[in-house]
Specification:
Residues 4-95 form the 2Fe-2S ferredoxin-type domain. The chain is of the alpha/beta class. It has helices at 23-29, 67-71, 185-192, 212-215, 229-241, 263-272, 299-305, 321-333, 346-356, and strands spanning 3-8, 14-18, 47-56, 74-76, 81-91, 106-117, 122-128, 142-145, 154-157, 172-178, 198-205, 220-225, 248-254, 276-282, 294-295, 314-319, 341-345. Helix content is 22%, strand content 31%.
């Protein structure tokens, strides 16, 4: 047989998977959403138990899944390919329910209609998609851009709030690209993704975000390091647009006041929704902060000052790995359970793709 039948034990969903295809790619191609992020064996978000059958594990990073775990019957479905005629896996992380809007990744062309520097390191790029291409996404997902640079493309989170049907409003999609020293894709995008250019876009991918029903009445805290603001703008805007009424707070960490960006949109949300507030931590600010919403401090220090407020909240963290790990450590020290913290680390996603090439 050229295909294997894969079953997700958590939901009973079943789909066909080609012999040379990963379980995750097969699932997404057929509209079956599984928890995932990096799609390259680095984050561990798609870890599963192999309940029936066997898989070829493929390339992985040891911190995402160890050799011992693989011997015990675990795998990462983003890189694992089925062996035999039938495989059943049980996902470790929650699987979207059958009522969730199915999302199928695609490859399409996108026209750059705006490309503006937000800071010396971050460029915001707005892409126009063909309205008839059928692109749909959930808040918090990412796309892959920049394969024209010759490095396979890199993941960039969507800052846009999805429309009620999951489509980008007016067919416009915005991403924020941080210039990575020594990188290939981000410098290429900063230089070449200018108005009128056409790019190949692949996606959407990822399950970063928060179900409003899971957030509960204690609310949600969003922590962004640099361009980690992009998915959190999408998440916050989507929650508020759909009537989320619990406390919703967003903290942005940048080096100095000169690195602040996105404040106009944060202020708009704060003025439109009484349950939303924001603040900024300036980690290398010299002199007084420029505005009342700014503090010359690091996010972990600010979290410790407010330990009593965090006991019941869910937390989403996005940004570079140093920022993410510092926030995770501070939250754990304050007694916030690990299962109440969802994180997305950008540099690790890019690093594992380079290593796998």
């Amino acid at each position: 047989m050229d295909e294997c039948r894969v079953t997700i034990a958590n939901t009973g969903a079943s789909f066909s998977c080609g012999r040379g295809e990963t379980i995750l790619d097969a699932a997404l191609r057929q509209g079956v959403m599984l928890p995932h992020n990096c799609r390259g064996g680095a984050c561990g978000q798609c870890k599963a138990d192999v309940v029936q059958g066997a898989v070829e594990h493929g390339w992985v990073m040891s911190f995402a899944i160890t050799d011992e775990e693989k011997e015990e019957g675990r795998c990462l479905v983003c890189v694992s390919k089925p062996l035999g005629d039938a495989v059943t896996v049980s996902m470790h992380n929650p699987v979207p329910g059958a009522d969730a809007q199915p999302i199928a990744p695609m490859a399409t062309r996108a026209l750059v209609v705006s490309s503006v520097p937000l800071t010396p390191q971050i460029r915001e790029i707005t892409l126009a998609l063909d309205p008839g291409c059928g692109f749909r996404f959930h808040a918090g997902m990412h796309v892959e851009l920049g394969e024209e640079a010759g490095d396979g493309g890199r993941p960039y989170s969507i800052a846009t709030v999805p429309g009620a049907d999951g489509a980008p409003p007016l067919g416009l999609l915005t991403v924020q690209v941080t210039l990575q020293p020594g990188g290939r894709t981000s410098p290429w995008l900063h230089e070449n993704a200018r108005v009128g250019a056409e790019l190949t876009l692949r996606g959407p991918y990822g399950t970063f975000g928060c179900d409003p029903a899971v957030a509960g009445t204690d609310g949600l805290l969003l922590l962004a390091g640099g361009s980690g603001l992009a998915p959190l703008l999408s998440v916050a805007g989507d929650l508020l647009a759909n009537g989320f009424a619990a406390p919703l707070e967003l903290g942005l960490s940048v080096r100095t006041a000169a690195d602040l960006f996105g404040v106009g949109e944060l202020e708009r949300l704060a003025r439109a929704h009484a349950n939303f507030r924001y603040w900024a931590a300036l980690t290398r600010q010299e002199g007084d902060p420029p505005a009342a919403y700014c503090r010359a401090a690091r996010v972990p220090d600010l979290l410790r000052e407010r330990a009593a407020e965090l006991s019941g909240r869910r937390v989403l963290v996005a940004g570079p790995p140093g920022f993410v790990e510092a926030c995770r450590g501070a939250l754990a020290a304050l007694g916030v359970p690990a299962d109440r913290v969802t994180a997305e680390s950008y540099d690790n996603r890019a690093a594992h793709l380079r290593a796998a090439d």
